[in-house]
Amino acid sequence: MKALQWQGVNKLAVGQVPDPEIRNAGDVIVKVNRTVTCGSDLHLLGGYIPFMEKGDVLGHEFVGEVVETGSGVRNHRVGDRVVVSSFIACGHCYYCEQQLFSLCDNGNTNPAITETLWGQAPGGCFGYSHAMGGNPGSHAEYIRVPFADVGAFTVPDAVTDERALFASDSASTGWMGADLGGVKPGDVVAVWGAGAVGQMAARAAVLLGAERVIVIDRYENRLRQAEKFSGAETLNYERTEVEAELRERSGGRGPDVCIEAVGMEAHTPGAQFLYDQVKQQLRLQTDRPAAVRDAIHACRKGGSVFVLGVYAGFVDKFPLGALMNKGLTVRGAQMHGQRYIPMLLDRMASGELVTEHLATHTMPLDDAPTGYRMFKDKEDDCVRAVFLPN
Amino acid sequence: MKPMTRAALVITATAALGGTSYRVITRRRRSGAAPAAGRRHVITVNRPLDEIAEVLPEPLNAYHGTIEVQLRAAPADRGTEISARALDDKVSDGDIRRLLRESRSLLEVGDVLQPGGPTTEPTALNSALRGATRHGREGGLL
Ligand SMILES: NC(=O)c1ccc[n+]([C@@H]2O[C@H](COP(=O)([O-])OP(=O)(O)OC[C@H]3O[C@@H](n4cnc5c(N)ncnc54)[C@H](O)[C@@H]3O)[C@@H](O)[C@H]2O)c1
Ligand SMILES: [Zn+2]
Ligand SMILES: [Zn+2]
Asked: Which part of chain A has CATH 3.90.180.10?
């Protein structure tokens, strides 16, 4: 079958790979209807997560149709239209029982790398390097979905593929940031990053009752989307003094909850960016943490910072003093999709949560390398590129 | 001293019951064996002790006689701790990590997840990574 393969740093190509097969009784094979680029893929593409092999298939956010089921599958039948959580979880381990699905003990066939790096291994993910299990991704005609009773969800008729697609990863991730970040009615919430994840986090904060939600980015088209579809206020960090503005909009206190949806390739105006970029290139730090630094500095005393952006290793100039002395709670996680997808599909059906606007560019899988270039360079105001493999 | 190659699988189950604790030792063929040099590897399984003590999962049984296994109820009923240690030179730390991880998955899910693919070809650049992932359940810190 056809698939989009990683061929090396900043090199992608569509090639032929073997069709996926059922390997475990709990697997299903899904024919992919729609699959989308994610900011996380840019970290793989740029070589910041050095556990990729030439030929690996990318993609972890997708919707499709079940075409084959393993003997142990109970919840799905051939023909079901499903959206699948990007993280693979067993549903029975200690972590799954606590709904911390991305921390699943049994979802990563290759726990050695991350356990050595981080002390303990999170679960597996589709199309996200051999550190996350080396599972072939969704930018392909078909994909094998392990633990399908736990991670695949039937899409209600009222929700189109175009909308359901984003329940797979960005909407669940955004919701998690607001939920586990502790957003309460009346809160002031600031969100760094107006990509799909940041926009979804902002929408979640609004739906959870936040009084003011402020999204920060430098791309006007993304900020306009955040205003229109998330119901948020916005700040362009190239035109405004963000921290001063946040202070002013939160009665001098600073936001109650700060959600970072930028990640390890953060951009900053001025000298800090050069400093972080050089250190990253020299491998003196693996990640560029500009937005996390800002979020910690801006957050009110006793407030909460949730890190949704993906980081791989170590950072420099981490404001530990502010964190400690201001009594902050800092939390982060890969997404626990299985916890949120059914609720998100309901909200999508009722129209509370819309996502179609994120798919600014839709194209056949053959054009995926172009789609990634547009997504990476934000060409033609690209927010997300969606591929149609079939 | 040569490790006890003939020492049998020793299962020691310890659980706290109403303030008193008891030790259950079953299937013990030979006692008093000195512990082997290899360190103990421990994993917690999200199943109750009595269920696990009844039938050990296949990966552990397969190493009958060459490893020592102990079971203990985890604090606050949070599952069962399984610890294992090699009694034989031929059993590596990697073997023990793999069979503990496979046992946990079998006990919790009834299956062990198999890798997908591969969609890659061996090259000079990826040989180290391919080597590591072929033995993915053997490495790490467990
Ligand atoms: N935790 C999870 O499970 C999970 C899931 C999906 C994505 N992610 C991560 O979330 C992050 C965002 O994903 P996305 O798909 O929205 O990516 P994206 O690349 O489309 O969006 C990132 C946005 O951040 C903006 N940005 C860069 N530097 C900034 C700064 N200093 N301040 C404010 N904004 C800044 C960029 O302009 C861009 O609009 C990525 O790191 C991705 O890896 C995490
Ligand atoms: Zn993603
Ligand atoms: Zn699990």
From this structure: 2-169+335-388
ipTM score for this prediction:
0.93
CA–CA distance, A359 with A357 (Å, rounded to integer): 5
The 3-state secondary structure of A256-312 reads CEEEECCCCECCCCCHHHHHHHHHHHCCCCCCECHHHHHHHHHCCCCCEEEECCCCC
For domain B36-113, say whether CATH 3.30.70 is its number. yes
Q: What CA–CA distances, in Å, run from B94 to B36, B44, B66, B101, B108?
A: 16, 17, 14, 11, 21
Q: What is the pTM of this model?
A: 0.92
Residues of chain A with CATH 3.40.50.720: 174-332
Residues of B in contact with A109 (CB under 8 A): 113-115, 136-137
| Pairing between β-strand A81-84 and β-strand A62-69 as defined by DSSP bridges | antiparallel
Give the B-side interface with A, CB within 8 Å: 44, 46, 78-79, 101, 104-105, 108-121, 123, 125-126, 129-130, 132-133, 135-142
Residue having the nearest C-alpha atom to atom 23 of ligand 1:
A193
Residue nearest to atom 16 of ligand 1 (CA): A195
Chain B residues whose CB is inside 8 A of the A146 CB are: 113, 116
Residue B33 reports pLDDT greater than 70: no
d(C-alpha A22, C-alpha A42), whole Å: 29
Give the fold, CATH level 3, of A174-332.
Rossmann fold (3.40.50)
Chain B residue whose CA is closest to A54: B120
Taking only the tens place, the pLDDT of each residue in B54-93 is: 888 888 988 888 999 999 999 998 999 999 999 988 999 9
pLDDT in tens, A273-291: 777 777 777 777 777 899 9
Residue range A2-169+335-388 forms a domain whose CATH class is: alpha beta
The chain A residue lying nearest B130, using CA atoms, is: A53
Beta-bridge partner residues of B127: none
Residues with CB under 6 A from ligand 1: A 38-40, 42-43, 169-170, 173, 192-198, 216-219, 222, 237, 261-263, 266-268, 290-291, 308-310, 334-335
**Phi, psi angles (nearest 5°) of residue A221:** -60, -40
